[in-house]
Structures are given as structure tokens and as C-alpha cells.
Amino acid sequence: MTIAAIVVTHNRKELLSRCLDAIVRQTRCVQKIYVIDNASSDGTYEYLGAHAYLENSKIGYHRMRYNSGSAGGFSFGMHVAMEDGFDYLWTMDDDGLPADTCLEELFQYRDSHYFLSPFVTSEASGIEERLQRMLSLKGVNQNGGMIFGYAYPMNGILLSRRLIEDVGFPEKKYFIRGEENEYLLRAQQQGYQAVTAMRAHFYHKIDELRQLPFQLGTVFIAPMLHTYCYYRNYYHIFEKYYGVKFRNRWLVKEIIKRCLLCEFYTISIMVRAIKDAARNTWGGETRYLQ
């Protein structure tokens, strides 16, 4: 059984280096590491060369002609790995950090589960706190060392060739924010269950959230690019998988949250994103690319 790791990167060469070192240290070895460079401008290629990563025959470096976001990067990387005949693909961003035994713990469940997630937590937060948050979600339950009904794609997700042949590849049009969850929902729609292996630890920065009053929960804090893609993409994803009523309820709640925070410029970005989603217009993220 052959395994390829796919790492998508953009202008984070030091984090990429840390991620590659963690993959090389795995107690279950991968046969190939595909580095998908989304047109970095920070000298990523030169950095990898200077630190001898490119001398490692396992590492294949692919530079995209333009920044295609995580959606485009994962889609391209998965295409290449599938064409090269690998049985399993292990996907992550450059800021991911798998524990040394992460892949070994995931791989033992490969015969019974095809969408395998490690237990993802930040380096700052505790495992128990993260576990309780996961188990509080509807439809999520724990059985022994497995959590059923939950995954954190694409952070250390192990995907089988069989699943990818059935489900396809991430939608490049989403760019960032939501493409990973759309892929999970698509897989579930085709009968694949998301499973988290608790002993497979993977460290990743958790999105910053701000607590709001009046039982409105939390709000996502992000730069303009992420905000635009978040609202455009989820407007489309929620309608596709949950229907118009669910999407509209979510949208009203989000507008109220932003008004409570007096984030009127964010609301203007949200309106633009929603208009683009409603018109099925893609590519608007280029306005916010630096």
C-alpha cells in the first residue's frame, strides 16, 4: 500500500520546513511528498534548495503559475498523486504539524474507513478541551478510540484512492474557506462516513473566534480575503447541501453578529460576496489578493 503526502504552501517557508520535517519523522513512512507551491514570492524554492529538501528523492516540488488557493492546490496535488498511482493521499497545509505517530495511527483503520481524520488541536489548547467541543456537536459520538461523524479536512486527512475515484477532487472555484468542508459533505452524500482517530494527533492553528452576547455564539475573525471567500462559498455550500431556508437563517444570523460588532466594512464585503455567489460568479477573490 503506497502513501503520498500532499502539502500546499504559500509564502510560509519556515512553517513548510517544519511540516516537511514532521512528515519525514513519521513512524509510518510515506513514499512521496508533493509540495504544491501556490506561486510563493518569499523565496520558498530557494529556501528548500538551500536546506537540502530538494535533494530528498521523496520530495517532489510543483510550483503553480498563480496562487490558486488551498482549493486549487489540493485539487492539483491530488490529481498528480492519483495519476502516479498512489493508494492513499495524506493532505495538509504548510502550517500543519503531525505528531510522529500520526500517520501510523491513522493507517491502522484504512481497511474499514476511507475518510480518516486525525485528532486536530492547536499547540496552545488542550486535547480534552477540544474533545469536549467536538462531542457537543450534533451527530457526533465516541466509540473507543474513534469519533464518528466528525473530521477536520484537509488537516492530516487520509483519503483512500477508492473514495477519490468516487467523490472526485476539491472544487477549485472556492479558492479558500469552505472547499474542505464541501469535499467532506460530498463524500458523506455518497455514503462515506467521516471518522476521527483520537490517538492520531495533528497540530494546527485553530481559527480565531470572538464570543458574542445574546446566545448568538461566535463569529469568525479574518482578513478581507478570507471573509469574502467565507461568505461567498458558504452561501453556495449551505444552499447546495442544506437548502435555501437553512442558508437564509445562517445569513441573517451572520448579519446580526457583524452589526453587533459594528463591523460595517465587513458587512460590505459580505454583501459583495453574497451577490457573487447568487450570480454564480467566481474569481472575485482576486480583488483581495496581495
Using the 3D structure, state the CATH architecture of the largest domain.
Alpha-Beta Complex
SSE class:
alpha/beta
Number of H- or I-type helical stretches: 10
Number of domains: 2
Chain oligomer state: single chain
The helix-strand sequence is EHEHEHEEHEHEEEHHEEEHHH
Rg from alpha-carbon coordinates:
19 Å
- Shape field: globular
**At the first level of CATH, what is the class of the largest domain?**
Alpha Beta
Q: Give me the count of strands.
A: 12
Largest sheet: number of strands, sense, barrel closure: 10 strands, mixed
Give an overview in words:
With 290 residues, this protein is an alpha/beta fold. It folds into two domains: 3-203, Spore Coat Polysaccharide Biosynthesis Protein SpsA, Chain A, CATH 3.90.550.10; 209-288. It contains ten helices and twelve strands. It has helices at residues 13-24, 44-50, 69-83, 102-107, 127-135, 161-167, 179-189, 224-242, 244-260, 264-278, and strands spanning 3-9, 32-37, 59-63, 88-93, 97-98, 115-121, 141-143, 146-148, 157-160, 194-203, 209-211, 218-220. The strands form two sheets. Strands 1, 2, 3, 4, 5, 6, 7, 8, 9 and 10 form a ten-stranded mixed sheet that branches. Strand 2 (32-37), helix 2 and strand 3 form a beta-alpha-beta unit. Helix 8 runs antiparallel to helix 9 (244-260) and helix 8 (224-242) packs across helix 10. It is globular. The termini are far apart. 40% of the residues are buried.
